[in-house]
Amino acid sequence: MTDPQRVNIGKQHPAAYKALIALSSEVEGAAAAAGLDPLLVELLRIRTSQINGCAFCLRLHTRDALKKGETPDRIAVLPAWEETGYFSATDRAALRLTEAITRVPDGHVSDEHFNAAAAVLTADQVSAIAWLATVMNAFNRVAITSRYPVGS
């Protein structure tokens, strides 16, 4: 039995995909306005994609992070960020919140996780990170559902 051809949902409904791209651009602007480091933004996108298992987005955002100057070491240890000294308090708060948002089925965003983030981040940063995670989770689902090709 063969699998039916996957539908590329971005191409099937291009207006919806363009709206997601526009939302992503708006959120990136909000992250910059909130003072979030562009390297941290890429790490949050990578971490979300790691959790969701999105190979397409992992490749894309790892390349973007490296082009922007992120170190291979920080990318390599990202799944174990809590065990390293590579990440600042801001990075850790952002990663913790991003993981909680991405893992909503595991117990929602707990008060503990939210309060830990809010103790380090401004309200604008918390909001921008939440929007970054929301948009990245959406892109992961588009790529995974459509089975965007990665490698040969």
Automatic annotation (TrEMBL):
<protein>
    <submittedName>
        <fullName>Alkyl hydroperoxide reductase AhpD</fullName>
    </submittedName>
</protein>
<dbReference type="InterPro" id="IPR004675">
    <property type="entry name" value="AhpD_core"/>
</dbReference>
<dbReference type="Pfam" id="PF02627">
    <property type="entry name" value="CMD"/>
</dbReference>
<feature type="domain" description="Carboxymuconolactone decarboxylase-like">
    <location>
        <begin position="28"/>
        <end position="99"/>
    </location>
</feature>
<dbReference type="GO" id="GO:0051920">
    <property type="term" value="F:peroxiredoxin activity"/>
</dbReference>
<dbReference type="InterPro" id="IPR003779">
    <property type="entry name" value="CMD-like"/>
</dbReference>
<dbReference type="InterPro" id="IPR029032">
    <property type="entry name" value="AhpD-like"/>
</dbReference>
